[in-house]
Design a protein that fits this description.
The structure holds two protein chains of two kinds.
Chain A lengths: L2 H32 L9 H11 L2 E4 L4 H19 L15 H21 L4 H32 L4 H5 L3 H9 L2 H16 L18 H4 L5 H26 L7 H25 L8 H23 L1
Helix pairs in contact in A: 1-10, 1-11, 2-10, 3-4, 3-10, 4-5, 5-8, 5-12, 8-10, 8-12, 10-11
Chain B lengths: L1 H19 L4 H28 L4 E7 L3 E7 L1 H24 L6 H23 L3 H19 L6 H32 L12 H19 L8 H7 L2 H11 L1 H14 L4 H23 L4 H28 L3 H36 L15 H14 L6 H15 L5 H33 L16 H19 L2 H11 L12 H32 L4 E4 L17 H11 L6 E5 L12 E5 L2 H20 L8 H18 L1
Antiparallel strand pairs in B: 1-2, 4-5
Helix pairs in contact in B: 1-2, 1-4, 2-3, 2-4, 3-4, 3-9, 3-13, 3-17, 3-18, 4-5, 5-6, 6-7, 6-8, 7-10, 7-11, 8-9, 8-12, 9-13, 11-12, 11-16, 12-13, 12-15, 12-16, 13-14, 13-15, 13-17, 13-18, 14-16, 14-17, 15-16, 15-17
Chain lengths: 311, 652
């Protein structure tokens, strides 16, 4: 990789972090549209972040340094995951054989610290949220590794760049074809649960007892909370970008066209999240694992069917 | 070889001196700790030297004309010697302040005696080069650890734990002896190394018997039953040694038998892989359900043995299907995980020992908030928890990463192998997720939040020699996590002692891979530093207020309202309820003004449950019927012996 390429990759990485809050606002707009409301402005998340960064913080007397470390680590892991993401099919900042496994475990590190920060407060509600976060992510990880097996069978590679940059994704479709539709759905389910969206978790609910992610960050305030929010936007961007590259693996050729297509598809993925949130209610807690298990089953089917294609 | 024997002699001398010095408590402890530590250092130096040498060291002694005591140290043995001497060194240092009961000098002295014997016998086990030497060292190891388990023999449950351990280690030894017996039947020689005479069926039978025998030492499901009883009973530095390295001698046995048989059938790989997956998942599920900190750590050892076996199984399948890279990744990953597990598990047991020392309790749901007062214990325990959950940039990740790569290399195989490898990848992912849940539970409930009982209030941390090993181990966790190259190469050296039938492993992929991990970790630390700097800037000149935790509108919270470890694990355990049946006792809440109520829960281990029903009870019933043979009359006993000899004469 030469220097200009590297600089472009780094700029794209920074852009991804900077634009992540904007895309997340699209979900709010779509929900507002379904509710017959005007909705908040598209830059709402930037206003919120600036407001949070200007504030001070209130810390619970129960907490330790873990409480302050949690937001930093969760933001950093999400931001680092974006380094491996080929934005708009362009080469990512970092890429090596096995980086997908590294990313998944890195996100696990972020989860560990988020949970630890929640447990630090001695609040029963936060403990409850933490237990759910730990539980549901186990099944998500199984799904993701199942998808990884399929992708490895198709490409012989273990890096996001090989799957999603250049013509790699198109290659996936050409060998696997229709089973990849299963993978897209499975990945979308994982996206919903890992980013605490309806029907797994409702970020807009008012009762702490029914929350997962939101309840874990109840006690965070000020810049710490800003870090958590920004980290969550980055994580959502990461998953959505993967889904959008899977749906539209085309490279029109010109970099600007590539970018436009990527943004258009990305917007539609965010809109799909918004539509899901508008037309569905949150599942009862005991139904959630079954819902996420569906994603595993889909990925498993896709792999088995593809084995036949490969023969 | 001289250095090796010298180090063994120094270690044992320290232990033997202990009972004579028991009147001078501090002197006794100093002499023992110094001699064991010095012996371990010497052994470590020797093992490190031997690991890089291509030729193996051999020494032989004739004993009673018939038996030859032979030792041989090749790369595989040397790798295990590094583990044994390294961890024992730190455990010995730790024990200086941990063994604080000056009112029981003799018990402490006996503990040091058997500790030194355990260390020496473990070193001899991995150095043994014929059947007699091996079984001899193996028995000393089992017996000395048995006496260590019953250190606090006044408690009935500890005696029970010791008995259980005794039964398991000896039934296991019988299986190993059977395997060796079959080998002897074919070869007519006690030496390790001549197995060409065995037929293929015999080789499979030998492997299966040896796997059961060594598996019961290693804690492979369903032979792990003794582990969660024995580890909590033993003193913490002994648990660290037993869980960190002694159970690894079981893995050593499996690898040694595999090397000796030199028979590359997919059956071996499949057996090891399936046992690994089952142990891995069930071990961590049971760990999640425990209420006692050391029991939890013991079950987590079962899980980690599972991960190691998955790595080794992948390696064996790689060998039998002719995939050198898969074999190299699998074996190296398994070996490195052995090293890593020895490091973080002994760290965690030492942390648990410190908690027990300062609070007097190991009940997870009775503790809480220890991080505020015990910063070093809490901090090192956190690093151990992160490492055992396999998260980057800590050492557990590196070995699991290698095992994953080995698995993925194998996805090109045909149906049966592909299915088992697919399951292995998914189980590794599930194990990773469950381990994260398990150790966030431990750290969150024991070290964070508020103290749940008076025992956990007003604690402090004392004991410099207890803190130093913990800090050292935590440092090594990060060191291997960030700069894995030297350690991966060390594991590769160890793997070269296993006869894979391939050229020496291609080093280039490993060099590239470890470089990538170092780079990614460095970038991650850089990002963390930037974020921390940004945080400092954002908070400069801001008002920071301290107040109570937000109770969601409730203004009178008590510490009893905190989420307990039991409730944290409840939903995950419900998911696995078929494999981990939960028994609950709840006295219920009655009336408008309910009185005291209680709740008690226990997660059953299916292996323990069914082993009781299917093996223990029938065997006991059978023996009860045979009771008349044991009449206590000495004359008839001598008659039995004569009869046995006469019957044996017919077979010779």
């Amino acid at each position: 990789m030469n220097e200009t390429d590297m600089i472009v990759s780094v700029i794209l990485w920074l852009l991804a972090i900077l634009l992540a809050p904007f895309f997340a606002a699209v979900i709010l707009k779509v929900k507002a549209f379904f509710g017959g409301k005007k909705g908040p402005p598209l830059l709402i998340h930037y206003y919120t972040l600036i407001k949070l960064f200007q504030k001070g913080s209130v810390y619970s007397t129960s907490t330790t340094f873990m409480f302050k470390l949690g937001p930093v680590v969760s933001l950093c892991t999400a931001a680092m995951a974006l380094m491996f993401l080929p934005v708009a099919g362009y080469r990512p900042v970092l890429s090596f054989n096995g980086d997908v496994i590294f990313i998944l475990y890195l996100l696990g590190l972020g989860r560990f610290f988020t949970i630890a920060a929640a447990m630090d407060t001695a609040s029963p509600f936060e403990g409850m949220g933490a237990a759910r976060e730990a539980y549901f992510s186990i099944i998500c990880e199984a799904t993701l590794f199942m998808i990884l097996i399929l992708f490895f069978k198709l490409t012989g590679d273990l890096s996001l760049a090989a799957y999603l940059s250049g013509s790699g994704t198109l290659g996936l479709w050409q060998t696997a074809g229709s089973p990849l539709l299963f993978v897209v759905i499975a990945f979308f389910i994982v996206l919903l649960s890992e980013n605490s969206r309806v029907p797994v978790d409702d970020p807009a609910t008012h009762l702490e007892l029914t929350m997962i992610h939101e309840v874990m960050v109840l006690d965070h305030s000020g810049p710490d909370f800003g870090f958590i929010e920004l980290g969550a936007f980055c994580k959502l961007f990461f998953y959505s970008a993967i889904v959008s590259r899977l749906i539209a693996p085309f490279n029109p050729g010109h970099p600007v066209l590539n970018g436009c297509l990527f943004i258009a598809v990305l917007l539609s993925v965010y809109a799909a999240v918004g539509v899901t949130e508008s037309v569905m209610a949150r599942y009862k807690m005991d139904k959630v694992p079954k819902f996420i298990l569906i994603s595993f089953v889909l990925a498993f089917f896709a792999t088995i069917i593809t084995l036949e294609f490969l023969r | 070889m001289h250095i090796f024997f010298l180090s063994i002699i120094i270690i044992v001398t320290g232990g033997v001196l202990a009972p004579f010095l028991n009147r001078h408590f501090i002197l006794m402890k100093s002499v023992c700790v110094l001699s064991i530590a010095f012996g371990c250092l010497l052994g470590l130096y020797y093992a490190g030297l031997q690991l890089t040498l291509p030729v193996s060291d051999r020494a032989s002694f004739d004993y009673l004309h018939h038996f030859t005591i032979t030792f041989q140290i090749d790369a595989l043995s040397a790798f295990f010697l590094v583990l044994i001497f390294g961890i024992s060194l730190l455990a010995a240092i730790y024990s200086f302040h941990y063994m604080h009961q000056a009112e029981k000098p003799l018990a402490t002295a006996v503990n040091y005696l058997f500790f030194s014997l355990l260390v020496a016998s473990m070193a001899l086990v991995v150095a043994a080069a014929n059947i007699i030497t091996f079984m001899f060292s193996w028995e000393i190891m089992s017996l000395s650890s048995f006496f260590l388990v019953i250190h606090n023999y006044q408690k009935e449950e500890n005696r029970k734990a010791g008995y259980l351990y005794f039964v398991f280690s000896h039934v296991g030894a019988m299986f190993i002896l059977t395997a060796f017996g079959i080998m002897y039947w074919y070869t007519g020689s006690f030496d390790f190394g001549e197995t060409a005479a065995l037929t293929n069926t015999a080789k499979i039978i030998v492997f299966v018997f040896a796997f059961i025998g060594f598996g019961s030492k290693a804690g492979v499901f369903p032979f792990h039953v003794w582990l969660p009883h024995a580890h909590p009973a033993a003193p913490s530095h002994i648990s660290a040694v037993m869980s960190g390295i002694m159970i690894k001698t079981g893995i050593y046995g499996i690898l040694r038998i595999y090397t000796l048989l030199n028979f590359h059938t997919p059956v071996f790989g499949e057996i090891v892989l399936i046992a690994g997956m089952v142990s891995g998942i069930l071990g961590i599920v049971y760990a999640l359900g425990q209420h006692d900190l050391k029991r939890l750590l013991a079950y987590s050892s079962v899980e980690n043995i599972g991960i190691i076996l998955i790595g080794i199984g992948i390696g064996m399948i790689g060998v039998s299907s002719g995939k050198p890279m898969m074999a190299a990744f699998g074996f190296t990953g398994g070996m490195l995980h052995m090293l890593n597990h020895a490091i973080f598990k002994s760290l965690l047991f030492m942390g648990a020992g410190m908690v027990h020392h300062r609070t007097g309790s190991l009940a997870i749901d009775a503790l809480g908030g220890l991080l505020k007062k015990m910063k070093m214990t809490g901090g090192t325990f956190l690093i151990g928890s992160l490492a055992i959950s396999g998260l980057p940039p800590f050492n557990g990740f590196v070995s699991e990463f290698l095992i994953y790569l080995g698995c993925f290399e194998g996805t090109g195989l045909d149906r049966m192998a592909f299915m088992s490898i697919l399951l292995a990848i998914v189980s590794l992912a599930v194990i990773g997720g469950l381990a994260l849940a398990c150790f966030t539970k431990v750290f969150g409930v024991v070290f964070q939040g508020e103290a749940r009982s008076s025992a956990a209030e007003n604690v402090d941390e004392k004991g410099l020699t207890m803190l130093i090993p913990m800090l050292a181990l935590a440092g090594i966790c990060i060191l291997i996590g960030v700069f894995p190259r030297a350690f991966v190469l060390m594991a590769i050296h160890g793997v070269s002692g296993i006869g894979t039938g391939f050229e020496p492993a291609l080093l280039e992929p490993f060099i590239r891979l470890t470089g990538n991990i170092t780079m990614a970790s460095a970038i991650f630390f850089a990002i963390i530093l930037v974020a921390l700097a940004a945080r400092v800037c954002l908070y400069s000149g801001k008002t920071i207020t301290r107040s109570g935790t937000w109770g969601c509108g409730f203004t009178q919270p008590t510490v009893k309202m905190q989420y307990t470890g039991t409730s944290y694990a409840a939903s995950i355990l419900a998911f696995f309820s078929t494999a981990a049946p939960l028994r609950e006792d709840h006295s219920g809440v009655e009336g408008c003004f309910p009185g005291r109520s209680g709740y008690r829960s226990k997660v059953h281990d299916v292996a323990e449950l069914y082993m009781n029903a299917v093996i223990v009870h029938p065997v006991l019933a059978l023996f009860a019927k045979l009771r008349w043979i044991q009449h206590g009359d000495i004359h008839l006993y001598i008659g039995y012996i004569l009869l046995a000899i006469i019957v044996l004469l017919f077979f010779i």
